[in-house]
């Protein structure tokens, strides 16, 4: 099940410009460690280029987990990505198993990865994606300086904190298109609460619900049998919804 809601205020982009100006955009990319800013005038030549996807893992498992490896592959194929970049946050890199810090403390490291990747693929649209905590940090990064994200993909956004607090501050600040993929039985993101937040967001948003899915989209066998489906088919539908949303928003740039 997928729903899309138009924003109250659309992000300023090339569609609001006329004539030749419609195809022009200035990209600023900060080179890591040098402090040097690269400015590249992007014209219509860049339209249709394969997107660059930077994909962040969740709090409890690194980028090498089976879940991340599988979704990296399906996103690469569905989006025809020039590359899907994955990485490990410092607290879990190299086999470490420390408790994750607050999401805000991961933004600088995450942004550094994004800038390096952007510098490697100049002119390619940037898509930020993340699982759970990684999606929350991705939203924070998308709102940062010199990060020209075209869209954000949130796979299991953790809207509710452990203490029950609603973590919607960054979502309400976003102007970048966002698609949420959520399991209907995900306790960290009640769908009715997410709908309230989406109505307040300024960006274009979409929601695809995996019926019976938990926080990692896993569906109980009994539920699959009752609907005559399987896990792969349910996730394939989610991937198709993502591809449709990203394609439509890239076409508007």
From TrEMBL:
* Pfam families documented for this protein: Abhydrolase_11
Report residue spans for region: Disordered: 1-25
Bias kind Basic residues: ranges = 1-12
Q: Which residues form the signal peptide?
A: none
Domain (KANL3/Tex30 alpha/beta hydrolase-like): residue spans on this chain: 51-246
Which Gene3D superfamilies does this chain map to? alpha/beta hydrolase (3.40.50.1820)
Which branch of life, at top level?
Eukaryota
Q: What is this protein called?
A: KAT8 regulatory NSL complex subunit 3 isoform X2
Query: Can you name the source organism?
Result: Olea europaea subsp. europaea
